Each structure stands twice: as structure tokens, then as C-alpha cells.
UniProtKB/TrEMBL annotation:
Family annotation (InterPro entries): RELM (IPR009714), Resistin-like_sf (IPR036262)
One Pfam assignment: Resistin
Lineage of source species: Eukaryota, Metazoa, Chordata, Craniata, Vertebrata
Protein name: Resistin-like
Native organism: Gopherus evgoodei
Single GO term (MF): hormone activity
Signal peptide: 1-20
Amino acid sequence: MKAAVFLLLTLLVPAYHTGAQCITDNAVDLKVQAAISSIVSSTLAKAKLLCQNVSARGALVSCPAGYKPTACACGMACGSWDIRSDSTCHCQCGGIDWTAARCCKIGLE
């Protein structure tokens, strides 16, 4: 009988403390998540998309430092373009007279 009671206690006591630990962990997790959400929300509220247009003669135009091309336009009715090196618009048709790019970056207020 003593062995059965001892066995029952050894199974129930850790289970009880584990449950309490889970509740504590969950409470801590919720507090951390709330703090992170607050920081992220306040940072995102300050974020702005800053864009500018750039153009050049020929088939290539590069965005200013820190900016990325989001769209390109080509002269001579050329609709074929690509973005090279993550910063340059390239018109693929021959004899292009001008190329333009819409360049953007994310800035903070």
C-alpha cells in the first residue's frame, strides 16, 4: 500500500509542477510577445516608402545608393527590360534612346 501511494505521488507531483511551469512559461511568452508587437508596431508606423525617378540616355540607368529599382521604362516603344545587379534598369531592345527607373527605399521618420 505504501508503495502504491508513493508511486502515485511521484507521478502526480511532477505533473502538477510541470503544469504550473507551463502556465508560467505561457505568461512570460505572452508578455514577451506583447512587448515585441509593440516595438514592431511603433517602428512600422514610422516607416515610409521613399521613391524617385531617374533617367539616362542609352539602355542603362542606375538607382542612387540605397535605392532599388521597382520598375523600368524604355524609349523606342521597347517593353522588354530587366534589372541587373539589383540596382540597374536595362532595356533589352536595340538602339534605345533613353531608359528610366522608379527607385525606392524604405526610410524611417
